[in-house]
From TrEMBL:
It comes from Octadecabacter dasysiphoniae. The lineage of its organism: Bacteria, Pseudomonadati, Pseudomonadota, Alphaproteobacteria, Rhodobacterales. PROSITE patterns: ABC_TRANSPORTER_1, ABC_TRANSPORTER_2. Pfam families: ABC_tran (PF00005). InterPro entries: AAA+_ATPase, ABC_transporter-like_ATP-bd, ABC_transporter-like_CS, Metal_Ion_Import_ABC, P-loop_NTPase. The keyword Translocase applies. Residues 4-219 form the ABC transporter domain. Gene3D superfamilies: P-loop containing nucleotide triphosphate hydrolases. One of its GO terms (molecular function) is ATP binding. The keyword Transport applies. Keywords: ATP-binding, Cell membrane, Ion transport, Membrane, Nucleotide-binding, Translocase, Transport, Zinc, Zinc transport. PANTHER family: METAL TRANSPORT SYSTEM ATP-BINDING PROTEIN TM_0124-RELATED, ZINC IMPORT ATP-BINDING PROTEIN ZNUC. This is Metal ABC transporter ATP-binding protein.
Amino acid sequence: MPLISAQNIEVHHGATRAVFGVSLALDPGEIVTIVGPNGSGKSTLLRAMIGAVTPNKGTITKQPDLRIGYVPQTLHIDTALPMTVRRFLNLPKRVGGGKIQAALAKTGVEAIEKQQLSGLSGGQLQRVLLARAILNDPQVLVLDEPTQGLDQPASAAFYRLIETLRDDLGCAVLMVSHELHVVMSATDRVICLNGHICCEGTPDVVTAAPAYRELFGTGTGGALALYRHEHNHDHDHDHDHDHEHSA
Ligand SMILES: Nc1ncnc2c1ncn2[C@@H]1O[C@H](COP(=O)(O)OP(=O)(O)OP(=O)(O)O)[C@@H](O)[C@H]1O
């Protein structure tokens, strides 16, 4: 039984139909990455899957008492506010030193417990946010562009860590990334979204796309090139499209 599934959901933001006709199931232990152009509904779909927004149509089904760990894009820290890593991880409820140390060790930043949040590098901060997300031993880790602002080697290291955590904790991972070329090796299934799911498959299937190979390693363009290639096809289903696929 999937941990979370969406059945033919549609989500509106005012007059904007951000997500439509989306059905998606997340199984235990799998890593699923959602990619797509800006404004294609990736964050909206993620938020609908975890219950943070209610679909206007369709249903979301979650396993009862599902433990979800959420990693935001980043945390905007007021540098005037003194806050150690340990204190931050004890909010909003105290979890105790042992658990905090274990979580920081799992995310590769065990030595920074007493440091101020405001003094951390971008990569360290993301690992602290990841540590916070695993404190409740989640069955699902949800990440919304967790490596924004990190350089490519730091992003790649972060995604390798996600894969290690999945293996250690046995959790499923659902994430949004712009960097398919970086996240590829740490992904079981890729979902290409443009309001609706345009295509999905294993990284092997998507890496076979000539347009992607041509542009592999050229930054965000790689993911978008893949997107363009994979969408140069006829759809089996009669979606009411409100966008055009580029060739
Ligand atoms: N709170 C909101 N109010 C109004 N419109 C919204 C809101 N959130 C998202 N939208 C709109 O819904 C559409 C989908 O937005 P969403 O943030 O889900 O896309 P995204 O693929 O995550 O974008 P990006 O890659 O730029 O982060 C966009 O047209 C966006 O402007």
